[in-house]
Amino acid sequence: MAETSMINEHSLNEECGIFGIWNHEQAANLTFYGLHALQHRGQEGAGIVARHDDGQLWQERGLGLLSDVFADPRRFDNLTGSAAIGHVRYATAGNHGVENIQPFMVNFADMQVALAHNGNITNAKTLRAELEQEGAIFQSSSDTEILLHLIRRSSADGFEAQLVDALNQVHGGFAFLLLTPDAMYAALDPHGFRPFVIGQFGDEARYVVASETAALNAVGANFLRDVQPGELIRFDRNGMHIDHYTQATRLNIDVMEYIYFARPDSNIYGINVHQARQRMGAKLAQEAPIDADMVVGVPNSSLSAAMGYADAANLPNEMGLIKNQYIARSFIEPTQSRRERAVGMKLTAMPAVVSGKRIVLIDDSIVRGTTSKYIIQMLREAGAKSVHVRIASPAFKYPSFFGVDMQTTDELMAANYSQSEMQTIIGADSLEFLSVPGLVESIGLPKQSDGNGLTTAYFDGHYPAPVYDYQADLAPLVQTGQVTFDDEPTQDERS
User: Fold this and answer.
1) What is the pLDDT of residues 22-60, one digit of tens each?
2) Using CA atoms, how far apart are residues 5 and 273, in angstroms rounded to an integer?
3) Are strands 454-455 and 430-433 parallel, antiparallel or unpaired?
4) What is the CATH number of domain 17-249?
5) What are the C-alpha distances in Å from 470 to residues 32, 120, 316, 404?
6) Burial class (CB in 10 A: 0-12, 13-18, 19+), 66
7) DSSP character for 54?
8) I need a labelling partner for 490 at 20 to 30 A (CA). Which of 56, 159, 333, 355 fits?
9) Strand pairing class (271-272; 267-268)
10) pLDDT per residue as tens digits for the range 228-281
11) Helix axes 419-426, 370-381, angle to 10 degrees
């Protein structure tokens, strides 16, 4: 069992969805629909900031699902103008009050600025302490607010130079959207941990920026390009301007986007998520075959992998589990008790399909084990003869610090138990995981000059960058050789 307490449940971290539109007369309304396509990324709160034609910014935000926050159409009365940014939030950063709902909006002496963020700043604790010592007063407990203070603290000449200065002080995983009276800015961290894409309406200078391509499709925009690591992109009256706030970059996309977080109809760096998951399932069938009667995928994020496994194993792919589509995703429920209740409400086994059958149960991951144990028990109660669990990702052994809600090994089942112990605990007849090489091959990202372009630290303990404020918490794992870190890329390497 891992000997580490690490970080508690309320550490600074969030996994969210962001969306912005520039130069469209229906900016706020389309931002609502774009955020709706990203609702799976956050269900705790939502907000939209619109830029009026006179340059004034207006904010509407609240707790709950997007449709609840904006149920009253009068909330759109002041969200007018041709530019807007929006945010759907899932967070473990501080409390869950409305003060942490984004986009944040501040009134500097000389201008207004709105900010939306997806990811986690790994040196936030250090930066916040420095800023507070200098007299900064924070209105939220979110790491996102730090960027606004860094911008205002900068002595650089002009807002954009101040933003560049601030971006070079923060570390970790971040996709930022900023809205000012004159422009909209998009910035991605130097490793590209979070997906971030740009779309365009026809061939006009009307642009969309979003966490996933599925959100572009929702508003009828065409995919234009991925935001690249270290880029700072400005949208203003003269169109789109692409620049970099740093040349010290290295692509390390968070592999959990392909495994779990992103919608299957999204593309990340040219790789369709559904097809990548299908290949994961097919590879898993090659690596971990089993004599069985049928394949059953856990809805919804495992259905693509189940299709791939069934096809490769030449087994029927049956709908043995039914999901209540109106129940939230249990992994991103903010507390364990709510996760357990969500699992109990969202799935039903079909005795007519599974009774007397040897089942290959395909799931995308085992994190805490709550869901797996419950589903296996449910299948057995429905009459399944045996349940062989096949996981379309490697065992989740190490914490995440770049924007996924897993910052303590205490919560990770595979960090505390052997594979055979996990099998016993969840009640499976057998348990196998996809290998790390199999996962990388299945995703199929073109090989990079400095690596495979993916962050697989959760499975192999190899972090593509230091984790700064969290570094000391990993010391026991570093000492035993389980965890290693790459250095940050330097300007000399990439220039």
Assistant:
1) 999 999 999 999 999 999 999 899 999 999 999 999 999
2) 34
3) unpaired
4) 3.60.20.10
5) 35, 12, 46, 14
6) buried
7) T
8) 159
9) antiparallel
10) 999 999 999 999 999 999 999 999 999 999 999 999 999 999 999 999 999 999
11) 50
Exposed/middle/buried for 426, CB within 10 Å: 0-12, 13-18, 19+?
A: buried
Q: Which residues of 23-45 are buried (b: 16+ CB within 10 A; e: fewer)?
A: bbeebbbbbbbbbbbbbbbbbbb
Structure tokens at 468: 């700064």
Identify the three-state secondary structure at position 387: strand
Fold equal for 17-249 and 272-442: no
Q: Residue 419: enclosing H or E segment and its boundaries? A: helix 419-426
Domain chopping of the chain, boundaries: 17-249, 272-442, 446-494
Residue range 272-442 forms a domain whose CATH class is alpha beta
Looking up tokens 């779309």 gives 199
Measured CA distances, 207 to 76, 113, 202, 384 (Å): 21, 19, 9, 51
Question: Cβ neighbours of residue 38 under 8 Å, at least 6 residues apart?
Answer: 17, 18, 19, 88, 210, 211, 212, 214, 215
The reported pTM is: 0.92
Give the separation between CA 383 and CA 378, rounded to whole angstroms. Answer: 9
296 forms bridges with which residues in the sheet? 318, 361
Measured in Å, how far apart are the chain's first and last C-alpha atoms?
Answer: 44
To the query of whether residue 16 is one of the catalytic residues in this protein, the response is yes
Answer whether 87's CB lies under 8 Å from 17's CB.
Answer: yes
pLDDT tens string 370-411 = 889 999 999 999 999 999 999 999 999 999 888 766 667 888
Q: Note whether 15 and 90 are within 8 A (CB).
A: yes
CA dist., res. 307 & res. 315, Å (int): 10
From the list 6, 7, 12, 16, the catalytic residue is 16
In whole angstroms, what is the distance from residue 269 CA to residue 443 CA? 11
Q: For residue 78, what are its two tokens?
A: 């002041």
List Cα–Cα distances, 31 to 26, 84, 85, 142, 288, in angstroms.
8, 7, 7, 23, 44
> β-strands 358-363, 112-121: how paired?
unpaired
